[in-house]
């Protein structure tokens, strides 16, 4: 397995929400759903490789899955990991072109 293949499995999807849009416009900070075992360095390298930008800072947080009712049964949504990626000045990611 090559390094590029492993890094491509780190980022699962961008998180598009009101909060993430405001963060992108105001602080040049983008939000991604990442693999549960991902580290800050892996996230940084994969974002730089996939989007051809320079990353200044990465913050990770674990999002706990909510307990929900499915009909008459109680269930739990999966836990997942979120990454806030701050880009260096002059760099930008355009999701509409991708």
TrEMBL record:
This is Large ribosomal subunit protein uL23. InterPro entries: Nucleotide-bd_a/b_plait_sf (IPR012677), Ribosomal_uL23-like (IPR013025), Ribosomal_uL23/eL15/eS24_sf (IPR012678). Keywords: Ribonucleoprotein, Ribosomal protein, RNA-binding, rRNA-binding. Part of the 50S ribosomal subunit. Contacts protein L29, and trigger factor when it is bound to the ribosome. One of the early assembly proteins it binds 23S rRNA. One of the proteins that surrounds the polypeptide exit tunnel on the outside of the ribosome. Forms the main docking site for trigger factor binding to the ribosome. NCBIfam families: PRK05738.1-3, PRK05738.2-4, PRK05738.3-2. Pfam families: Ribosomal_L23. Belongs to the universal ribosomal protein uL23 family. It comes from Methyloprofundus sedimenti. It comes from the Bacteria. HAMAP family: Ribosomal_uL23_B. The keyword Ribosomal protein applies. GO terms for cellular component: ribonucleoprotein complex; ribosome. GO terms for biological process: translation. Coiled coil: none annotated. One of its GO terms (molecular function) is structural constituent of ribosome.
């Amino acid at each position: 397995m090559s390094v590029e293949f492993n890094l491509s499995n780190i980022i699962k999807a961008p998180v598009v929400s009101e909060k993430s849009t405001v963060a992108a416009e105001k602080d040049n900070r983008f939000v991604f759903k990442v693999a549960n075992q991902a580290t800050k360095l892996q996230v940084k390298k994969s974002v730089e490789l996939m989007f051809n930008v320079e990353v200044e800072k990465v913050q990770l947080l674990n999002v706990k899955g909510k307990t929900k009712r499915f009909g008459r049964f109680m269930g739990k949504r999966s836990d997942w990991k979120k990454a806030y990626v701050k880009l260096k000045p002059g760099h930008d990611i355009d999701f509409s072109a991708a």
